[in-house]
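ARCHIVE CARD
SHELF: 3
SLOT: left
DATA:
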Amino acid sequence: MIITEPKAEFLYEGETYRIGATVIANEKSAYAGLVGEICEIRTGEDKETENETPEIFCRFEPPKLSADITELEKRFSDACAAEKKIEDIPLDSVIMSPEMLICPDNDRNKEKIYVLTEEWANDGDGGFNTEVFTDALTAKAFLNFKLSNEMSDGLIAKWQSDEEFKFEENDSAYTAWVDGYYTELHYTLKIEVKEMTVSPDFVSGIGKRYLEKCRYEDFYSQVSEWEDAETLNEDEWQRFISDARIPEEINAGLSDIYWEEYWNAVCEAAHKLLNEYLEKHSEETK
């Protein structure tokens, strides 16, 4: 199958690839870091290579920064064992496998983040600071912490006695200033909700950290009541329950039966859902 129609979509392993969609080459490709668009998709007998996965043809934009151009040239020169300049590197109709691409427009690759911005000016001195959080409560807590500091021993405390002191606030922002001198004397805190594009490797890393955290918690729940462990002093106990080998030792101890049951569960879920879809398909085609 060859797909070239604009906006036509192809679903592969839960990821949607759309003709014309923006893509980013990841570290698994020599084109890592380049931004481009999908111009063609090929599967089955229409593929030009012997790869088992679909072929995603991409048109990449050349890098704009000198350092990035040099890095790309070096990468291809090393791979080809010959000097390559940017004009020697093919950027049109590049065949990529799905695992080499990040699709930033796909909602599955987006996560909500909370950006806390702090900006101020004080008689010629000014600054700007941004912090990013993954949940609203933590972002709000930091807003309140910073605001409390400014009200007790910062710019707001300094200006509050001025007759022209003004402020505005809502549930996610606070701005204070001296009326008539906003450009020279102001302080602002605000939280903005934005979307962050995350790569599969990033998600995998977070998942691994969470799994390791669970391993430590499960380990502690087992040994916390063991009488033998009471022999250890406090320093030994802390080193024991935080030993870096704990997750690996637990993973290594999982038997083949565990994984057999896991794949049985996957198979049962697949059969259950497939039967539902087949039943629905049968009803709709009567």
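SLOT: right
DATA:
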Amino acid sequence: RVGTRGTKTRGLCPEPGFAEHEKDPEYWRQQAQAALRDALRLQRLNTNVAKNLILFLGDGERSRCGGDTRPGDRDTGMGVMLAPPAGMGVSTVTAARILKGQLQHGQGEESQLEMDKFPYVALSKTYNTNAQVPDSAGTATAYLCGIKANEGTVGVSAGVTRDQCNTTRGREVTSILRWAKDDGKSVGIVTTTRVTHATPSAAYAHSANRDWHSDGEMPPDALQGGCRDIARQLVENIPDIEVILGGGRKYMFPKNTSDVEYPGEEKHRGTRLDRRDLVRAWRESKAPGKVA
């Protein structure tokens, strides 16, 4: 299988598999801490506390974690932004730079993108623990939770096998959204896709399959095993998220419920088998005037 990572090879194609220690979240945390220590030894970095953190995530999604600074906090800047769009490797950036220059009637290579003017730049390795070419579920888990994971899984360590509900328990990992909320900050998710999509869902959900948007998309063995769909986790895992804006409304409503915006279109009807109205449940859990 081309594209899988492995320790054994047969011809030119590696057999699926990865090192056992990659299943341990602490392995990735220690690597991150070591990288930070090395960076601090090389140069004096800005260690002030930002007022806000905004993550512009791949495929157009955005997750925002922010809040006012507290007395005594060091604060010399407005915030920090991370913008990792999908498929943005060196070759894509190079093509964009050339196109910009040619649109300005130059050769292209001599042009500069705004990011080329940044005082500090770096490269990152993007892969899933079991795939050389990653998907947005595993990568979202990596940059939101700090843990590399298997392809197709969100908010869990590499000890979880895709589609296998019984491998999930005890292998959940928390995200920067949870850390910010636990630190008393206001948090929210704003996305141009469905709020249960792999990228935003890694901020709040723990699932063996990125496609388990509602219980209507889950196999019987997963439901019987006690795994919860991603839409339900959005409402239950971090119930005090201040703002949730995005699509995917049908995963919040009982099966065959007509959509308020597209009542005549079958593809937009509700998909939930448990007959729950998650939008109502979320709104009722909020104080009046505190719902978005």
